[in-house]
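Work package 3, deliverable 3.1, input record:
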Amino acid sequence: MTDATVSSPAPTRARSFPKVNSRAVVMAIYLIFLLLPIYWLVNMSLKTNNEILGSFTLWPRDLTFANYVTILTDPAWYMGYVNTLIYVVMNTVISLSVALPAAYAFSRYHFMGDKHLFFWLLTNRMAPPAVFALPFFQLYSSVGLFDTHIAVALAHCLFNVPLAVWILEGFMRGVPKEIDETAYIDGYSFGGFFVKIFMPLISSGIGVAAFFCFMFSWVELLLSRTLTTVNAKPIAATMTRTVGAAGVDWGVLAAAGVLTIVPGALVIYFVRNYIAKGFALGRV
Amino acid sequence: MDWMAWTWPTAAFFATIAALLVVFTVLAIRFPETPRMGVLRIETTRGDRLFITLLGSAFINLAWLGLVGQAQPAALIVCLIYAGAVFRWV
Amino acid sequence: MNKTVNHKAWFLVLPVLVLVAFSAVIPLMTVVNYSVQDTFGNNQFFWAGLEWFEEMLHDDRMWNALQRQLMFSGIILAIEVPLGIFVALNMPKSGLWASFCLVLMSLPLLIPWNVVGTIWQVFGRVDIGLLGHTLEALGIDYNYTQNTVAAWITIVVMDVWHWTSLVALLAYAGLKSIPDAYYQAAKIDQASRWKVFRYIELPKMAGVLMIAILLRFMDSFMIYTEPFVVTGGGPGNATTLLSIDLVKMALGQFDLGPAAAFSIMYFLVILLISWVFYTIMTNLDKKGM
């Protein structure tokens, strides 16, 4: 074998020209595979229904924003976004505020049953929502919280609190313990130390945890659809209920899809280096 | 609490599990746990072995139900043997 | 990090405990209660013993759903893991181009699951979708609403599209931790590309790959939203995976007893896999990977 095909992938090495090319080609093909379906959705959202159904076009011939206008002016659509935002924000706030102290405890101390507790949290992150849909429905109906935002926010705590605890613990264990001890010697109370010194140190961890809580609550369909009918109906349910009826308004559906992607896409640049860590529950 | 549809057997079932947890917590306070390496080549403490026992028992009961039929007392005997094995060798 | 023993730390964990107990333990207890009873509505319950469990265990419905589920999880793992590693090996190591790739690759991961379903539902349609239309033009019979094979291909490709990047990003994180010296040593020894992969890169990635495989297995095992939006479990029951079947039974037909028995068995399997996951994770931590 000659060096041309054996050359190593180390970045510092001078790379032979064909090698660079093959890597770039692989990446380009993969990225096109990823982007094509998304492009198609965006493309459809900018077409009229006549164009979508009547002729097959690779880009909008008759560019229109009417689909977006429909969503932003029709309460049946935009209230879906409002409802989703309300319970997602509630859930993120609840999850983070209970998870922060707990994650600190797990990262700093040994206590009775700590490992089992940590494992038990994991099982809740892993539990299929389908198992919980029915009892949640009964539970929230019986306490009169059915079809409210707080019901969905609490239901999503099932997987988001464990998620937040695990991610935050992953970040906190990277902070040396000496910092805590110095702060206590300097006369900080636990609360003062936690808010003034510790939280700024793990701010990126808090950001990532918040992002993932937001994300998983935002994408969850089954529980949010089961627990709501009208007043707190999420956008995901609005979208799936439109499907299946005769004469789907494809343009509006595509536009709704694009608008649902936007929150994730907006912050993607800031979290790009932490995505693997977040999905792997802070373990990478 | 109506919607939870409690029955005596299920209440007794959860009470048993709760009691087991309490007993093992007390045991852990009295005689601190020391992890050991067992046949599964993983470190386990007493609490871990309890978990393995309970989860395994659930599967034994299900298997018994599927293969033999509704004769759970017999399955429970198998579970006890299994529990003994877990606490001895795992 | 060496931790100190401090049982007062319990107070810091208490809020989480209360909250998760409320949203996990109470529902689970309810499921257990339902599983041993029969109901005709109105919160009137009758003792049924272990009948539902026995019925479900002898019913083909659950086994078929489980079979489809295992097939689905197996197929997507067999595709996503090698493909993810391959993509990670080809990713640029640094610079603007690396950031660019990272951002674009993360995009599918952050798309809401129901929209993932919508995207592929639209993309695969013969009348309005690029994929369906192209395949039709090529003379391939592809209709995922009627053809079982097409439906399966659609949901598998969708999952590959959705999650391969996660495997790639995790593998990439493992690759980046390999010091340059390793490659230089390999170069001196004139190791082939395959040997570099087999003896340097793969062992260094083993930890993250384990996490990736387990995560993908768990998440695919409880997948609901995406296939539900695309196929609704059809044609017939061809793509009715475990979660879809359970939801049909519990909320569609409101068969509380059988659905509860199903739920418990489903949950037990999840519990077992979670335990394996946790044990492997803690062992990796100990080895410092």
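Chain C has a mean pLDDT of 86.
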